[in-house]
Amino acid sequence: MESSQKPILFHYSRSIYSHRVLWYLWLRGIEYDECIQPPYMPRPDLAALSINYRRIPIMAIGKDVYCDSRLIIEALEKLYPNSNLTPSSSANAGIGKLFESWCIDGGIFMNSIKVIPASKALLQDTKYLDDRQSLLGGKRISVEERAEGRPDGLAHLRQAFEMLESTFLADGRSWILGTERPSRADIDGVWPFEWIIAEPHMKNSLPEEFISERKFPLVYAWVKRFVDTVNAEKHKRPEPTTFDGPATKEQIMKPGAPIGTNIVDDDPLCLSHGDEVEVYPSDYGASHKTRGRLVGLTTSEVVICNDIGLHVHFPRWNYHIEKLKPTIASPLPKAFSVPQMRLIYHPQSSYTRKVFMLAIELGLEQAIALEKVVVCPIPFPGWSDNNADVAVFNPMAKIPCLVPEDVPDGIFDSRIICDYLEGLRSISPQKDKQYWQLHTLHACADGIMDAGILIIYERQIREKKGIKFDEWIEGQELKMTRALDRLETAASSGILPAPPDGPASADEVAVVCGVKFAERMGILSRDRRPKLSEWFSKWERRRSFQLTPPTQDWKGSNSVASTLKI
């Protein structure tokens, strides 16, 4: 059954793996929209979707997000059946798969990279080299290395040209499988050859004495024929709509459910539905791990649900799935007595998350009934519906607001609430240098959240009223960036301690919430702040973090009757 939602392709113009998907879309006549990405990290549009996957392309179809060009094309085959590109027999489909593996895993593309002329501006671009160093796990690309590897790359590529010239194309056929039109086998086989022959920035990459149209006329003709065909099909299709990051997220998060998935019961990894896992490539780009709950697993695909409710799909081949073990804080002693409390909250409020995460850390969550509200500084439909209700307990009509039995008029401001909760556990830290350093980071994290909320109001409310102030947004983003720099320094110097075996402090929890909020806003790039990211990744496994996602209501006590009409 054809998908009712138009695909959105995240790509950039020079991504040859993106070309594979674009060619498929054009040849099939599948309409799509796009969100153009920078060729280098960071990619805030994807960070805002809680996708840490490093490679391009990525395709979203509704709330399902597909990573890796191979899986994207497989998904399109299933969602848009009756393909005119599908090989006519299982044997021919197998040939296509072998071409796919030969070009991607068999070294054709990696040897193509070796022949990039050392004089090309790309190899002089420090930003590109820094980015690829991170992608390759610390290995630095250099002009000298490329020059040394070039002869070896040419030798391997010449073998590939000879194979095509003397076998599949030797009988004069137009396409790999002898079809009247290109098939998936052509897409799977042609792309690295098209890249080194036809791409303008690869001009002069192949010395004529080794590889040329004169030496391999059939291969060159096949590439030209393919390029002409896909360009002709492209010009028949309507231009895609290009969305920016916020508009893309709005499209993806429209009402609707991801497609159904299942988990095989005989997988060697012995994983179960709901397991917390990380998925990442096992060849390169392994430092960019995407985390979520396992919701689908077959012999060829793994699907996880991330913290904003998207189903993120990965192939199994050359991808690693790591099951995570949650860190569980120590529970509250049974003999400990606490008042019953109501927490007025919203799951998307990072301040509220800070408070409830701390309650979980302290073992207090079962004493707290949760009451969800929506509030806003000004009357705004859908945003300010509960302002008057919340103002009964907090005249600022802001959340979170805690209403304990022993303080029935309410406690507000997240830091004051944290003080109250820690007081219930009789936590009184020694106020030495380390305390004040960490406590100051609490204010730093709150500053990140303050600035982020102001950006949201500017983009979501003031823009709709025609009074958006771009310089104000830039100023708030700069504040968040400086704050993250401070947190990176703190993580590097040890001021931010590793998550404890027992309850964590409010200061640590605040930093966690501030960092996650910055990532959701697209401000945090984990590549740029490795020590902070390493510290934060440990927190992502913690129970208090996992029980407070911003995409769904949380679970507290149901024992307290609400007095709010909300």
UniProtKB/TrEMBL annotation:
<dbReference type="GO" id="GO:0006749">
    <property type="term" value="P:glutathione metabolic process"/>
</dbReference>
<feature type="domain" description="GST N-terminal">
    <location>
        <begin position="5"/>
        <end position="84"/>
    </location>
</feature>
<dbReference type="InterPro" id="IPR004045">
    <property type="entry name" value="Glutathione_S-Trfase_N"/>
</dbReference>
<dbReference type="Pfam" id="PF13409">
    <property type="entry name" value="GST_N_2"/>
</dbReference>
<dbReference type="InterPro" id="IPR036249">
    <property type="entry name" value="Thioredoxin-like_sf"/>
</dbReference>
<dbReference type="InterPro" id="IPR058268">
    <property type="entry name" value="DUF7962"/>
</dbReference>
<protein>
    <recommendedName>
        <fullName>GST N-terminal domain-containing protein</fullName>
    </recommendedName>
</protein>
<dbReference type="GO" id="GO:0006559">
    <property type="term" value="P:L-phenylalanine catabolic process"/>
</dbReference>
<dbReference type="Pfam" id="PF25907">
    <property type="entry name" value="DUF7962"/>
</dbReference>
<dbReference type="GO" id="GO:0004364">
    <property type="term" value="F:glutathione transferase activity"/>
</dbReference>
<feature type="domain" description="GST N-terminal">
    <location>
        <begin position="339"/>
        <end position="429"/>
    </location>
</feature>
<dbReference type="InterPro" id="IPR036282">
    <property type="entry name" value="Glutathione-S-Trfase_C_sf"/>
</dbReference>
<dbReference type="GO" id="GO:0016034">
    <property type="term" value="F:maleylacetoacetate isomerase activity"/>
</dbReference>
